[in-house]
Amino acid sequence: MMGDSKERRVRWKGRHACETALSDPMSAIYSAIKAWTPPSGMFADSAVLLQVNSEQAQLLNRACFGRPYPPAIAPPPPSAPTYPPPIPGFDDSDSKEGLQFFQLALEEAFYLNYEMKCVRIYHQSHKEERVLLSHDELWRLMLKKKQHFVQHYKAYSHMRSKRWVVLSGIQFGADFMAYRHHPALVHSDYAVLVMLGEERQSRLNTWTELHAMGRLCGSVAKTLLLIYVKRKDAAVDSTFPSCLEDFDLETVEVNRWLPEKNREAGETLEENSELG
Hints:
The chain is α+β, with helices and mostly antiparallel strands. The protein has one domain: Trna Endonuclease, Chain: A, domain 1. It has helices spanning 17-23, 26-35, 54-63, 106-115, 135-145, 149-161, 207-219, and strands at 40-44, 47-52, 67-69, 100-104, 120-124, 130-132, 165-168, 176-179, 190-195, 223-231, 247-254. The strands form two sheets. It has a six-stranded mixed beta sheet. A hairpin with a 7-residue loop joins strand 7 (165-168) and strand 8. Helix 2 packs antiparallel against helix 3, helix 4 runs antiparallel to helix 5 (135-145) and helix 4 (106-115) crosses helix 6 (149-161). The longest helix has 13 residues, at 149-161.
């Protein structure tokens, strides 16, 4: 999945970033999140607002799930990155019992609720009462809020299960960006596009589009990763999250072909060229 970490050069941020990442692995952070007392969240439009204490907020920040809400104006970046990055916009003294809010994207919220089973999510009923959502009810709400949510969540959960940090890729024209660890420590490796398998694609239909996306990724030192999510059966019922097992996933890295890196050792291009 997504390349061999031994072959791909990791672009760390700062002299001690690698040491920090090794001392605080994602698997340990995930274990701490699973062990906490599940906080409560409220489904709101196209996101979930999760109410957490300061310790839970730090864990979410270290694992890169969601972002503080409301967002604060970020201070000027320091000369060297710090870790864990401070959570802006909140002060425990300004909130009751140190409670804070985190805004989760749909994929993030469902992953924490369904895969990690570490958050409870409610919805406001017509009688203005909070109703605790089951996995199935939450799934159906998200299907209504985001087109192709099934395919996007399948790709997101696959990358998260491999302990990649997955963030929005909108600034690069992608669906997601994939990092080996916290973005304060490392640059992202992949710009990810979720492809709809056998369904009609709305992008990369022409060589021009593919070339443009490849050039964009090359200019910012990212690798374009296409994740194809395909139905095993045309009659898949997607109204339940159990349908995720009925989708296959295939990853394809899109790289430039460099002839000089594919020659026999000791030969130059001129010595073995038939083009004159």
